[in-house]
Specification:
disordered N terminus; disordered C terminus; about 400 residues; transmembrane; 2 strands; Acyl_transf_3_dom; acyltransferase activity, transferring groups other than amino-acyl groups; mainly alpha
Length: about 400
């Protein structure tokens, strides 16, 4: 990429690395909390607490969109290091599709089995389920088999990567980057995405939610794909990043106000007193405002306060994807194992948190140490070890 608006390819924004790490850590906490709220999940604690919904709503609007944005941002640097678009999509296919297949075959089945056992009275053991029912390509008690569950994100990311690769082959990238810099180098970086998201959530798909089904998810694709492409453009745009740094404070104010609006609507209504239809549009508009303004505020804060490197950053950045692959299976299996103990809610949460972090770390460290497992958990092949130089003889 040429032009004064583009940083050198070697320039690294550590703030975006820290933001990516934090976003995935938040996702793990969110999925632990899913055990304790009335919303549907693969396994539920007996300690349901409606108040837990309130802090979760603070992240509902933007957490997934942010993950796709930072993934698009990282893709720009991966593409710059690749010999060309073909090599880039081939490398990304290995890094995404192999873990996705491994996850569907090995990681996800315990989640589905626990759901069938705890919710539908399924009586067979996990090995029997895996050998007899899981690969039936049918439904069992309304549960689709096999499933990718939380790994839908990986499938979407590969599809968006393929779209991006095709776009880079068809579009003159320097001209496209200059257009991006001009459009998003000021207030439009805050306003234009909000207008788009208001259309999605406030008009086109009123109170619609993502289905996480690749061919039947208009709300998801209209939200996540633009965020992914925006992150790709942002990675080489000084004007857009500078505008975000200037606007993070007003964006944070708007995001908080939008969250409080959503919170008030949620607190005024309950399953016994559902939200009236006339409030759907204000809710959708508030959702859109919080969705983008929170992301702008977080990127601005990360760029302002997260520019310093740390010895743990590289390790955490590498560990993020293996943690993501395994975390939900650990949560679901651990919660199922805790059910007979009937522990207090706070004890269940503590055990789940410790078990999830420890299990994710063990999965990452073991997978990193075993060469043939590395590509299955999304890691690059281990670099070849350097031969030891002969030591001079001591006379």
């Amino acid at each position: 990429m040429t032009g004064t608006s583009s940083p050198a390819p070697s320039q690294r924004h550590y703030g975006m690395d820290w933001l990516r790490i934090g976003a995935f850590a938040l996702l793990i906490l969110y999925h632990i909390a899913m055990v304790f709220v009335p919303w549907d999940f693969h396994v539920k604690s007996t300690h349901q607490a409606r108040w837990v919904v309130l802090p979760m709503l603070a992240t509902n609007a933007w957490r997934l969109t942010l993950l796709f944005l930072v993934s698009g941002y990282a893709s720009r640097f991966l593409l710059a290091r690749s010999p060309g678009p073909g090599a880039f999509v081939a490398q990304r296919s290995v890094r995404l599709l192999l873990p996705l297949l491994f996850g569907i075959v090995v990681i996800v089945p315990p989640q589905t089995w626990v759901e069938l056992v705890t919710k539908h009275g399924y009586a067979s053991s996990l090995p029997d389920f895996w050998l007899r029912d899981y690969f039936s390509f049918d439904h069992l008690a309304g549960v689709a088999l096999p499933s990718w569950n939380h790994l839908w994100f990986v499938a979407y990311l590969w599809v968006y990567t393929a779209i991006l690769t095709l776009a880079t082959m068809l579009v003159r990238m320097p001209a496209a980057q200059r257009w991006f810099d001009r459009v998003f180098g000021g207030w439009p970086v805050l306003v234009l995405p909000v207008v788009w998201l208001v259309c999605v959530h406030g008009w086109w798909y009123l109170m619609g939610v993502e289905s996480h089904r690749l061919f039947a998810d208009p709300v998801g694709h209209l939200t996540f794909l633009p965020a992914f492409l925006f992150g790709f453009g942002l990675a080489r745009s000084r004007p857009a990043m500078a505008a975000i740094e200037r606007l993070w404070a007003p964006a944070a104010v708007v995001a908080i106000a939008a969250y409080l609006t959503i919170l008030s609507i949620e607190m005024l209504h309950s399953p016994a007193n559902p939200t009236p239809r006339w409030m759907f549009r204000p809710y959708g508009i508030a959702h859109a405002l919080e969705q983008w303004c929170a992301i702008v505020a977080l990127i601005g804060l990360a760029e302002r306060w997260g520019r310093r490197d740390h010895p743990l950053r590289a390790t955490l950045t590498e560990a993020v994807f293996p943690f993501y692959l395994i975390h939900q299976t650990i949560i679901v299996v651990a919660m199922a194992a805790l059910l007979p103990a009937n522990l207090p809610g706070w004890a269940e949460f503590t055990v789940l948190l410790v078990a999830t972090v420890a299990g994710c770390a063990l999965f990452y460290l073991c997978g990193r140490a075993i060469p043939w497992l590395r590509p299955l958990i999304g890691l690059r092949p281990a670099p070849p070890s350097r031969p030891r130089e002969p030591q001079p003889a001591i006379i």
